[in-house]
Amino acid sequence: MSAANNKPTGKRVGRYDLITPMLPVKDEIVAKFEKILLSGHYILGEEVRLLEEELAEACGVPAAVGVASGSSALFVALAMAGVRPGHEVITTPYTFDATMEAIILLDAVPVFVDIRPSDLTIDPDRIEAAITDKTRAIMPVPIFGAPCEMHRIDAIAAEHGLEVVVDMAQAFGTIYDGQPMGSYGRMSTLSFYPTKNLPGIGDGGMVFCRDKRDADRIRKIRGHQAVRANNHLYTGWNSRLDEIQAMVIRVRHAHFDDEQRDRNQVAEIYDSYIPAANRLQLPNEGRGMHVTHHQYWVRCRDRDGLQKLLDSNGIDTAVYYDPPLHKHELSVYCRNVGELTAAEQAGRDILILPIHAALPFEDAHRIGALVQGFLQNEAAQAES
Ligand SMILES: Cc1ncc(COP(=O)(O)O)c(C=O)c1O
Q: Do 35 and 160 fall within a single domain?
């Protein structure tokens, strides 16, 4: 338990605290910053190389490539997986815009299938109905850090000759069946955006590759070199990671397990107040599954009422993906398969509670108790 978690501040409870986890490593970061500043080597140097090695090892893959952002990682990974104009990529509508944007930028078609209400990830039972002769890839998203059903998804992909690219922007540290999320799929992509669990102090991303040849190609492309792959000549462009970001991420990675322990503790406190039906439920709970808790969500019929109650008690919360992507203006470029009611329901019902490594446990208890009381009232009203 970190010292930060023993001290309730009495101030408004924010959803994130980007500064407190930096304090114990501030001097180390400043010293390393000065070294980089005076080295004159600012982009794609030793820090990036070491970060790639360390995170590839952490994710159990032979190679990882640092790139400019999680969005850029998605774009380049899909391109290297052979997604070309007119192809279709099956994915979830209950995710951040970047998932869909990368597909659209390749002139391919995002194909949305519904999610499972229990964990808000793509429902594997609905994927096969979405496959056509244009389908090239499946892109699961371990949303809020919950593992997707990777064995089922891999089996479907293998049967139909499809690629799997995992958008694990929110899921560094998530484990599915004993293996890191980053070890699944042909490639998986990560974001180092400052609010992510493993953050930089600016933009950054990474592609984890099961095949070193994909990594070699991405290394060329990110530095303006053309590449021949998938019977196509790809242009290079700028998708480089800089030394300052890589250095900060490496320093934070050394503290990742401690921070995750504190996040897990907050999640356990919330779990003790919130009925199972109103929160994340993992299939095969405990059997090789671990959630990284990028966000902690609660499902509530009067979501706006709960948000108001928490706000009036000085607690910040958030609503995400309401409406989901298939209701956005860009959905003209997309195709829906079947009803997407679980995604729409999640958009209406899900509220994101504060969770971060510096959240005082007393605050987590207070928030949990408020949510519990609200849900009990709601249940009593529904019965009467
Ligand atoms: C699911 C998902 N995919 C992709 C991204 C894009 O990452 P970045 O902001 O680093 O481009 C994000 C970032 O929030 C995300 O949450």
A: yes
Ligand 1 centroid vs 189 CA: distance in angstroms? Answer: 9
Q: Are residues 178 and 264 in the same domain?
A: no
Domain span at 316: 3-14+256-383
d(CA 248, CA 47): 9
Q: For residue 153, give the 3-state DSSP assignment.
A: helix
**For ligand 1, mutation pick of 193, 197, 321 (most atoms within 8 Å of CB):** 193
CA–centroid distance, residue 143 to ligand 1 (Å): 11
**Gap from CA of 328 to ligand 1 centroid (Å):** 17
Full-model pTM: 0.96
Chunked into runs of 10 residues, the chain (384 residues) has average pLDDT values of 55 94 97 97 97 98 98 98 98 98 98 98 98 98 97 98 98 96 97 97 98 98 97 96 98 96 96 97 80 96 97 98 98 98 98 96 98 95 84
Same domain for 227 and 308: no
